[in-house]
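User: Sequence recovery, please. Input:
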């Protein structure tokens, strides 16, 4: 065994405190210092299991200024890194410290455990062979829609995190940009009010009228095996236009039939109108 001090990256419960591993408890009790995103929450966890290891804060606002101190601590003792919940570094502080430790030749040792991302995917009922984690969806509508548009053709299952006060807006953007898809909306995983809703994006939006708690979204990938050619879609829009269908009606029908988002079909509708007016 190497006697050099190490940085232990320790997964902690995402809700239920019984989900801590035996190894994680042993490591947290043996290290010199625990760098915690939320010291109050971590102190409660350690107290529950009779662990009195010293804590120091390591969060989004001090993660860069605290680097030097933590690297110095690792000169003569092991340090454990924990986030508020789950695996550090995944949409939580940790990446910079892990990268710095590696750069300084300090062993970085994973202590795996709970993860809301993998937990939600496993129970979603959606394909698990390929998935893409998007992290927290952008707060601003324009940035959020741009991200979703960039992944509209992605066939892998998509996973994202969202805050309760933005859930309705994000579900609306998902419908507009990606089209109607299956989704598993996982709320408060492993906690007292755990809920896993499975259905379409529209059904989810209807169900979560007043969302509360923490949400993980597992969204069906683009299941269109052979997408219709643009010319075929334009031809169908032209046919509907000749029959007197309104833009809204034509776009809605073709979006449903083709699997494309209404936004993409509407762009083609505008192009057809422009071409017919030339």
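Assistant: Recovered sequence (278 residues):
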């Amino acid at each position: 065994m190497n006697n050099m001090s190490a940085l232990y990256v320790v997964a902690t419960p995402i809700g239920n405190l019984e989900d801590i591993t035996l190894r994680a408890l042993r490591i947290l009790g043996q290290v010199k210092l625990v760098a915690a995103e939320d010291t109050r929450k971590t102190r409660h966890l350690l107290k529950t299991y009779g662990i009195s290891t010293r804590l120091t804060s390591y969060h989004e606002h001090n993660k860069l200024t605290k680097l030097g101190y933590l690297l110095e601590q690792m000169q003569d003792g092991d340090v454990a890194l924990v986030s508020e919940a789950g695996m550090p570094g995944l949409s939580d502080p940790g990446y910079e410290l892990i990268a710095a430790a590696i750069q300084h030749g300090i062993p970085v040792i994973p202590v795996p455990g709970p993860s809301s991302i993998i937990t939600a995917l496993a129970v979603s009922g959606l394909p698990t062979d390929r998935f893409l984690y998007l992290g927290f969806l952008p707060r601003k509508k324009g940035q959020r829609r741009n991200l979703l548009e960039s992944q509209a053709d992605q066939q892998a299952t998509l996973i994202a995190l969202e805050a309760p006060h933005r859930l309705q807006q994000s579900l609306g953007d998902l419908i507009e940009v990606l089209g109607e898809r299956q989704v598993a909306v996982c709320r408060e995983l492993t906690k007292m009010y755990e809920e896993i809703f499975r259905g379409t994006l529209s059904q989810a939006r209807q169900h979560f009228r007043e969302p509360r708690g923490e949400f993980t979204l597992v969204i069906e990938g683009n299941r269109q095996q052979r997408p219709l050619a643009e010319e075929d879609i334009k031809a169908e829009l032209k046919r509907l236009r000749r029959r007197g269908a309104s833009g809204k009606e034509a776009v809605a029908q073709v979006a449903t039939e083709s699997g494309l988002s209404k936004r993409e079909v509407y762009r083609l509708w505008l192009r057809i109108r422009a071409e017919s007016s030339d």
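The chain has three domains: 7-114, 117-219, 230-277.
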